[in-house]
Structure formats: structure tokens, C-alpha cells
Amino acid sequence: MRSADLDAFLSDHPAAIVAELTSVRGSSPREQGAFMLIAAAALLGTIGGGALEYMVIARARQALRDGLPPGVMEVPLGPEIGQCCGGRVTVALRVVGASDAARLASRLRISEGALPHVYLFGSGHVGKALARALAALPLQVHVIDTRPDELHDLPAGVEARAVPMPEAVVRTAPAGAAFVILTHDHALDFLIAAEALKRADAPYVGMVGSRTKRARFASWYHGGGGAKRDLARLVLPIGDFGLVDKRPEVIAALAAAEIMVHIGSGEASGTRPVATMSGAAID
After folding, report:
1. Does domain 115-268 have CATH number 3.40.50.720?
2. What is the pTM of this model?
């Protein structure tokens, strides 16, 4: 959930209840602080799905119909409600007022600011498909191209920039940024990749292409004094899971998963903070 989503939801549904996990003990599908908004005929966000969420939604909508305070729910996540997490959660439900809206929006903006940055260099077919795939994930996505006319048909929330020297963007990118190289020019790809491999803090440096392209890049890179240990960090081709499907949307789906795994590995190892409020939930 983004702060813009919250604003739009409350504008369309001014009578809404926020359900927030204020306490989590044991195993739970979401973390403490996770919240969702519930209106009479619309929802935004999730506290974990399944029977827990079904019960909370029913309670909130009953409160909206009756005009009564929704109160607090203590829910055991076990056989009693048909879930097997085994923990216990406290869910606070409140009618959303101005102060609640401001507090939640502030939390979301802070969370958004902590999201990992992913830079896509190239706005061709694969670049656009990958931007669409990544835009739905808890990331800050940037699309960089030397061609202003190609920076169209990109999803809302994705920053698009036309720059004459894309490799310079790599140098000024925030710490922990990931870089994906998909331009129309192999020579430009190589320049950007060489710059990105200098960033030891980058959890992912990937380039679209083939094994032949990797061999050519390796020859060029080593010829310029590039170290083998740095080259080993380059993912080329991206999204290589053994499939031979070269459709942009398929490459994008596989590469998006790959990028998230690399970023998540960094979060798990403690090399970058985890922005949990926008994270996915699995019941």
C-alpha cells in the first residue's frame, strides 16, 4: 500500500474502519503494525487473509452498519478459526478520523522512503514489461533512457528520466540500489554494467542478453582491467530459469522474481533495512 492509495481510498470511501495488528504472539501471517482499511463495499491492504481477515472484515462492516464502535478483537490463529499459524493476534479496529488518516499516511510515506531502489536502464519492450512487473512490488522503480521519446506507457509511480549519460546515474544512485541494464545499444550496456559493478553495495546487477553477450562483455571487461570477482556478480542473462520463452512479459516476470530474491537476501543478512509495512502477506 502506498500513501497515494490511502488518500484515494479515503476520498472515495470516507466512512471506513482501519484494522491494525497491535500485538502478535507466535506465528502470524503478518507483522505487528500491519493494517488494512475496510469500507462497506471496498478494501485496501491486508492483515494476512484467510479466516482472520474474513472475521475482521465482517466485524468492521457490522460496526459501520450499526454505527457502533468496532472495538478490539483477540484472535487465536489455530484450529478454532480454521488457520494453522498457531499464534495469537490483537486487532484494533477504529473508525478512520482525520488524525488516523494523517498518522497512517505518515507511516506509509516513511515506509516508502525506505523501500529499495531499482534502476532500469532502457525503456524498450523488456524494460517496459519489467517496469510494470516491478511497479506492483515494494520497490522504488526508476527507468532511465537516452531517448526521451521512449519514456512512455510506464506505470504510475515509476520515475522516468531521459539522460545523455546513463552510467553517471549509477554513481549517484542511493546506497543499496539495484541495477538492471536493458538498453538498445550493447556498447552502452557495457559502460553501464562496468559502472554498476563498481558499486559493491548493489545487491543486484543484471543485464538482458545471452551467454554469448556475457562472453563478449567478459572479454571487454577484463581487457579494461575489470576484476573477476566483480564480474562474478553480474547476472547475465537476467531471469535465466531454464526457460526458452523470450517474450518480454515472461522475461520480466522471471527477472522480477530474481531481483526480489537478491534484494531479500541482502535484507535477511542485515545489509539493508527491511521495509515491512508494504511487504507481501502469505496466509
Report:
1. yes
2. 0.80
